[in-house]
């Protein structure tokens, strides 16, 4: 029995054992006590992980894959469901690392859920679309630097591990892939209002060609002493966005 890749689920099954070994090696460096894999498919990564000395669970939305895993790896803990809809408080009841070959159509949503529960997610090793991986690791001042770049770099150190070519998958995707590693940094809390910080970043990049004084007009009113207002969002680092948020807070509290 094998599992048919389903386009609607964004499934592309990894078939290159050399790549598998490189990913597993990166995962084992995490020194995790608890780990969840998102989208195990036919268990190409899981088979090397579920018997290791940590609490391992695989989350799979595809019923055909769940059946395959139950038959071939009966001792593996497989959770049938949609990671994005599962109760995060149960998933992340203790420090939990996230790993997997993520469906590209939901990779950003996986990262946003991880950010929301970052105090219980100390790290991640995942394969995603190469373009997204490059965007996540970008620094301020580049055209591909964006919302995910800023938000993930606020709370995680980002490491681009390696590129994976299309022929490593069945069926091959139309784009190259990449494996990235995220490790929780030392920033426990923001100096500014977190909800406002997230909102300003999203609204700034929503109109990334405009200067911040135009895209954030509703928040900044007549602020004149903030040095960032004549810049565009891709020019601001994480620390710059924190300072911008503090300036907006100060204005709003007057």
Describe this structure in words.
This protein is of the alpha/beta class and 254 residues long. The protein has two domains: 7-184, 3-Layer(aba) Sandwich (Rossmann fold); 194-252, Helicase, Ruva Protein, domain 3, CATH 1.10.8. Helix content is 35%, strand content 19%. The protein contains ten helices and nine strands. It has a seven-stranded mixed sheet with strand order 4-3-2-5-6-9-7. Strands 1-8 form a two-stranded antiparallel sheet. Helix 4 (107-116) links the parallel strand 5 and strand 6 (123-129). Helix 4 runs parallel beside helix 6 (147-155) and helix 7 packs across helix 10 (238-252). It is elongated. The N and C termini lie far apart (67 Å).
| Strand numbers in spatial order across the main sheet | 4-3-2-5-6-9-7
CATH class of the largest domain: Alpha Beta
Architecture per CATH nomenclature, i.e. the level-2 architecture of the largest domain = 3-Layer(aba) Sandwich
Number of DSSP helices?
10
The best one-word shape is elongated
- Indicate the CATH topology of the largest domain: Rossmann fold
Counting structural domains, the number is 2
- Which regions contain 5 or more consecutive residues with pLDDT less than 50? none
Relative helix content: 25-40%
Which superfamily, in CATH terms, is the homologous superfamily of the largest domain?
Answer: Vaccinia Virus protein VP39
Mean pLDDT across all amino acids: 92
| Computed Rg | 20 Å
The profile of the biggest β sheet is: 7 strands, mixed
Straight-line N-to-C gap: 67 Å
Count of DSSP strands: 9
SSE-based structural type: alpha/beta
Summarize the helix and strand pattern as letters.
Answer: EHEEHEHEHEHHEEEHHHH
* Proportion of residues in β-strands: 15-25%
